């Protein structure tokens, strides 16, 4: 039996929370100057996107409830394969602003599952 959908939601949620913590209060310039932070943020956004991509395969009905889910998975593919053309300003915006919105959405969906 495969993983339950709440596992993928939890993986994505953990990765997004890390992303927000890594960016913290850094300005765009501070973020751009910090290679370690950028690498960590990119990795966690990749994990979040991959988790949601797996969710899309096994439970498309739940995936469809995630705002911009398809764009998030596509962004993961850019992070994983398009590093030569990666726009770090876009990554910063995703991590510093969009991740918080996604966290709220995933928490709401995850709250509908019984506790393990």
Give me the count of strands: 0
Number of folding domains?
A: 1
Helix content: over 70%
Radius of gyration: 14 Å
Could you tell me how far the N terminus lies from the C terminus, measured between alpha carbons in angstroms?
17 Å
Low-confidence stretches: none
Number of helices: 6
Q: What percent of residues are in strands?
A: under 5%
Q: Structural class of the secondary structure composition? A: mainly alpha
Order of helices and strands: HHHHHH
Shape: globular
Question: How does this model look, in words?
Answer:
This protein is mainly alpha-helical and 116 residues long. It has one domain. Helix content is 77%, strand content 0%. It is built from six helices and no strands. The chain has helices at residues 5-23, 28-33, 35-58, 60-63, 69-81, 88-110. Helix 1 (5-23) runs antiparallel to helix 3 (35-58), helix 1 (5-23) crosses helix 6 and helix 3 (35-58) crosses helix 6 (88-110). The longest helix has 24 residues, at 35-58. The protein starts with a helix and ends in a 6-residue tail after the last helix.
What's the SSE blueprint?
Elements: H1 5-23, H2 28-33, H3 35-58, H4 60-63, H5 69-81, H6 88-110
Helix pairs in contact: 1-3, 1-6, 3-5, 3-6
Give structural attributes.
mainly alpha, 6 helices, single chain, 116 residues
Could you give a short description of this structure?
With 116 residues, the chain is an all-alpha fold. It has helices at residues 5-23, 28-33, 35-58, 60-63, 69-81, 88-110. Helix content is 77%, strand content 0%.
């Amino acid at each position: 039996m495969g993983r339950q959908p709440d596992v993928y939601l939890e993986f994505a949620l953990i990765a997004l929370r890390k992303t927000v913590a890594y960016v913290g209060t850094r300005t765009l310039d501070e973020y751009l100057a910090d290679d370690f932070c950028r690498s960590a943020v990119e990795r966690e956004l990749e994990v979040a996107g991959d988790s949601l991509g797996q969710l899309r395969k096994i439970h498309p009905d739940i995936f469809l409830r995630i705002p911009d889910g398809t764009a998030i998975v596509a962004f993961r593919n850019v992070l994983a394969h398009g590093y030569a053309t990666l726009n770090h300003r876009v990554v910063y915006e995703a991590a510093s602003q969009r991740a918080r919105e996604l966290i709220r959405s995933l928490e709401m969906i995850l709250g509908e599952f019984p506790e393990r």
